[in-house]
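Protocol step 4 of 5: obtain the predicted structure for the target chain.
Materials: sequence only (see below). No template structures provided, no constraints applied. The aim of this step is simply to have a reference model before the mutagenesis design in step 5. Sequence pasted as it appears in the construct record:
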Amino acid sequence: MSRVTLKPTQNVYHIPELDTPQIVAVDLQDTTTEEVHVVIAPNARFDLLLLNADANKHLHLECSEYAQGTLQIAMMKANKNLSLTIVLNTGVELDASLADFTQGKGRMLVQAELLGRGARLEWRSAALCTHQDRKYYSVSFHHTERDTYANMTNYGVTEGKSTLQFSGTGHIINGAKNSKTHQNAKIMVFDPACLGRADPILKIDENEVEASHAATVGKVNDEHLFYLCSRGLTKQEAKRVITLGYLNPILQFFTDEPLKNELSSLIETIS
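Step 4 output (structure tokens):
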């Protein structure tokens, strides 16, 4: 699929309905202010790729009625801080994926507002922390209309003296009947000095809903390491194989092939 890079008008990107399938790229370094707006047209079918998402920006993404598409975010630099607000209006379906395999420190804050009836959001992320990295991700779903759906899946690997934290909140307000909010976080801890933490939170103000959360933080299975080492791999090589298996699945949700290859190389290089 081809890629086209949009240019902003007064720090606002407008994504119209497209005649042919394309990856629409937004480069956050093209903007001159910290506030950046992306507006998706009603009924649009889109694949949105954020470039230079490592910039210290506050991105406001508004999906107009019945828009359907993907949001692809790849952190490619160290020391990143990004604040993202996603607004989903009636009938919107958004599939969002985040990959962060670089070294460094960073915070990402995501607030998803499901304002329209039938809005749906699938959020998934994969993060690798090595050496003395410090990474924090906070994702919040706010269901204000009935029949909305949101699900998050977070995977992480920590090594060395690094710290990785996932914080997730699902909030269904009174009146948002038949809404569903779910979250799941899994962090694999390789070394004694590293830290993995998952903080799932549910705030439910309505009875006729579905809500769940799950969190798993634990060290790598010693039997798996032993098995791989018994097949001739060193311990470091075995850890690399396990890390690839844990984080590689996120790549299937990226449609830009050059970026997908770059992300795959990052995992292999750092692991």
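Step 4 remarks: The first helix runs from residue 222 to 230. Residues 141 and 170 are 5 Å apart (CA to CA).
Proceed to step 5.
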